[in-house]
């Protein structure tokens, strides 16, 4: 069943005129014309899998039945899910403990529910206790937990630590003539990539999450990461951020599990961190150009121009290591969850590995962990166009015939 639920610091001054950028973004964002299906698997907490089953865990990718709209993309967060339809409307489901789903309450949302009164949406990001929405026109809205004195204030970018139960426009970006291109959410900080390639951060400064050399003073507004001139892509985990710039990966924030990929000997130090962006200069990536990055709760992965796949973190690899099991194919997409990884090859095959007790590996109930990448055989005949990895659930979009 589906229903609608009714309901001063500045960024950098280098952004283009908002009118010019608006036309550019709008012209490049068109509704999907190709029919698509949605598959989900993993732990079905508070309906996050959008399935009618009463099973707690769905061990293999399963078709979501009877969606009353055309699927454009899906996002799996730590505890919630969101679907964008072909018209740019957003439907959400999940735990919603901090009101991050933007429906004006903090109760679980166990049925796909449309967020009302939004302009057409281009992207949704889901964090542990917050959410962010980028519209087709490049405006940024955020909702959920705004932080605390203990965890850090300002992670929603509204100049305070207040909780917002409905999506609220981040007005400082409008005032500074900035448009959002990408956004990622940590447990207590937010990172935004503007259409000009500038990286902005706000929220808790502990463990260097903001990338500006500060570890004791939180930011209430989005501020530029000064030592990173520009970026092509951003990704973030619980307490760290990665940025991709001209084929080189930079990381900052907490590094206690090697999630930044910079290496620090054989010791795992709970206080390890990088206060400013530091490039990953590992031997494995030498003379290679990275084209895509992905992050999970405490690990990360990347793809190179040749389609090679590398990953690191969760105290297993302190620097990038190549995934040998997929060298026979070209990897075109990768997503990371909580201690597991998904990869999509150019021939539309999904590979997974890592911790799978929550069902996220998608290869059946007999496999709780995979040390090597393995193909999800039940999806071998499907044309997968998108993958998404939450902390305990996963999804993919499949082109329908």
List keywords for this structure.
mainly beta, five-stranded mixed beta sheet, four-stranded antiparallel beta sheet, disordered N terminus, 401 residues
Short description:
It holds the Pfam family RCC1_2. The chain is mainly beta and 401 residues long. The protein has helices at 18-28, 171-175; strands spanning 3-4, 36-43, 57-63, 71-76, 80-85, 90-94, 109-114, 121-126, 130-135, 140-144, 147-148, 152-153, 164-169, 180-185, 189-194, 199-203, 219-224, 233-236, 240-245, 248-254, 273-279, 290-295, 299-304, 309-313, 317-322, 331-336, 340-345, 350-355, 369-375, 383-389, 393-399.
Topology:
Elements: E1 3-4, H1 18-28, E2 36-43, E3 57-63, E4 71-76, E5 80-85, E6 90-94, E7 109-114, E8 121-126, E9 130-135, E10 140-144, E11 147-148, E12 152-153, E13 164-169, H2 171-175, E14 180-185, E15 189-194, E16 199-203, E17 219-224, E18 233-236, E19 240-245, E20 248-254, E21 273-279, E22 290-295, E23 299-304, E24 309-313, E25 317-322, E26 331-336, E27 340-345, E28 350-355, E29 369-375, E30 383-389, E31 393-399
Parallel strand pairs: 1-7
Antiparallel strand pairs: 2-3, 2-31, 4-5, 5-6, 6-7, 8-9, 9-10, 10-13, 11-12, 14-15, 15-16, 16-17, 18-19, 19-20, 20-21, 22-23, 23-24, 24-25, 26-27, 27-28, 28-29, 30-31
Keywords: Repeat
RCC repeats: 36-87, 88-137, 138-196, 197-247, 247-306, 307-347, 348-400
Pfam families: RCC1 (PF00415), RCC1_2 (PF13540)
């Amino acid at each position: 069943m589906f229903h609608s639920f009714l309901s001063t610091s500045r960024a950098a001054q280098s952004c283009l005129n908002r009118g010019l950028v608006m036309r550019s973004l709008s012209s490049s964002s068109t509704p999907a014309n190709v029919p698509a299906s949605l598959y989900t698997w993993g732990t079905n907490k508070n309906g996050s899998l959008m399935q009618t089953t009463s099973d707690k865990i769905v061990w293999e990718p399963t078709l979501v039945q009877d969606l009353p709209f055309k699927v454009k993309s899906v996002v799996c967060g730590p505890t919630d899910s969101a679907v964008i339809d072909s018209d740019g409307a957003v439907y959400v489901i999940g735990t919603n403990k901090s009101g991050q789903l933007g429906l004006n309450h903090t109760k679980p949302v166990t049925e796909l529910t449309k967020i009302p009164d939004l302009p057409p949406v281009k992207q949704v990001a889901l964090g542990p206790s917050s959410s962010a929405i980028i519209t087709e026109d490049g405006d940024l809205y955020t909702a959920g937990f705004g932080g605390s004195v203990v965890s850090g204030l300002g992670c929603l970018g509204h100049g305070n630590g207040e909780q917002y139960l409905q999506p609220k426009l981040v007005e400082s970006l409008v005032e500074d003539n900035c448009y959002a291109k990408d956004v990622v959410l940590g447990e207590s900080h937010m990172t935004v990539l503007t259409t000009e390639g500038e990286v902005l951060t706000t929220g808790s400064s502990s463990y260097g999450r903001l990338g500006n050399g500060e570890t004791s003073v939180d930011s209430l507004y989005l501020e530029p990461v000064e030592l990173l001139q520009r970026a092509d892509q951003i990704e973030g985990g619980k307490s760290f951020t990665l940025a991709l710039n001209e084929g080189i990966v930079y990381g900052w924030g907490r590094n206690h599990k090697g999630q930044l990929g910079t290496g620090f000997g054989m010791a795992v130090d709970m206080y390890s961190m990088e206060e400013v962006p530091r490039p990953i200069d590992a031997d494995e990536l030498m003379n290679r150009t990275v084209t895509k990055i992905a992050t999970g709760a405490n690990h990360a992965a990347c793809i190179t121009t040749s389609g090679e796949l590398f990953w690191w973190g969760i105290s297993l690899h302190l620097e990038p290591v190549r995934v040998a099991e997929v060298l026979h194919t070209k990897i075109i997409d990768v997503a990371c969850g909580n201690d597991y990884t998904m990869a999509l090859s150019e021939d539309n095959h999904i590979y997974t590995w890592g911790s799978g007790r929550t069902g996220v590996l998608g290869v059946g109930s007999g496999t709780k962990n995979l040390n090597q990448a393995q193909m999800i055989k039940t999806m071998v005949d499907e044309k997968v166009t998108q993958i998404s990895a939450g902390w305990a659930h996963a999804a993919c979009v499949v082109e329908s015939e």
